[in-house]
Write a structure and sequence with these properties.
alpha/beta, 9 helices, about 50% helix
Length: about 230
């Protein structure tokens, strides 16, 4: 119960802090939840921020690292410890933020490792309850790139990589529309690829609707994206 109160309170606080900035761009009646998936240092956060910055519509950026830092402070920790309790609270807060963002008519970008299909399912269910579309963006990088980045980052980020860096993403296990981007590519190349995705392109239309699409047509886009992902 105490954990539930903490995550609910933190989600409300983070939403209150972020909401004023969302009014600079139009909201939507056909929201998309974008979930990054990849190991630490793969470039997920750079892609996620670039996508948010390039969007023509309001996008709520839910960044697990930032959520984790705030929770660690609330728990009286000097810095994040990446333990089981902290991981649980971080993701639970993130799922609450996803729900709040979608309820308020904005797209949501969830920047997290999100490595397994099982681990992503709670977010899928929340999005589907809100009649939102879901796209998973797998950000991949080879070991040489990861190794060079490891030497240049903080101890906290090295610890995160030490715990998860040897894991692999599995796009073939994904049941939602997805996109694979190279974490070593320039940000503008990554965003250009997102612009061509049949669902993600909605974020780049300067409108408060689904890019001129009805919700039925938007759902058809989702099905097209699923088929394309299965048969590249």
């Amino acid at each position: 119960m105490a954990e539930e109160r903490l995550t609910d309170r933190m989600a409300r606080l983070l939403w209150q802090e972020a909401e004023p900035g969302l009014d600079e761009r139009p909201r939507t009646d056909g929201a998309v939840l974008v979930m990054t998936a990849g190991v630490p240092l793969s470039g997920k956060s750079r892609f996620a921020r670039s996508l948010v910055d390039a969007s023509a519509q309001a996008v709520f950026f839910v960044e697990n690292d930032a959520v984790r830092t705030r929770l660690a402070d609330a728990m009286g920790r000097e810095r994040p410890e990446h333990d089981k309790t902290e991981n649980f609270l971080t993701y639970r807060t993130a799922w609450n933020l996803i729900r709040i963002g979608l309820e308020n008519g904005v797209h949501v970008v969830h920047d997290a490792t999100n490595l397994t299909e099982r681990g992503r399912e709670d977010a899928y269910h929340e999005a589907l309850r809100q009649d939102a579309s879901v796209v998973v963006v797998f950000v991949v990088a080879d070991r040489d790139v990861l190794g060079s980045r490891y030497e240049a980052v903080s101890e906290d980020r090295q610890e995160a990589y030490d715990k998860l860096g040897r894991k692999e993403v599995d796009p073939d296990a994904c049941t939602m529309p997805f996109l694979v981007v190279d974490g070593a590519d320039e940000a503008d190349e990554q965003v250009a690829k997102a612009r061509r995705h049949v669902v993600l392109r909605r974020l780049f239309v300067p409108s408060d609707h689904t890019g001129g699409r009805t919700l039925v047509e938007a759902r058809e886009d989702d099905e097209v994206a699923r088929a394309a992902a299965r048969n590249p």
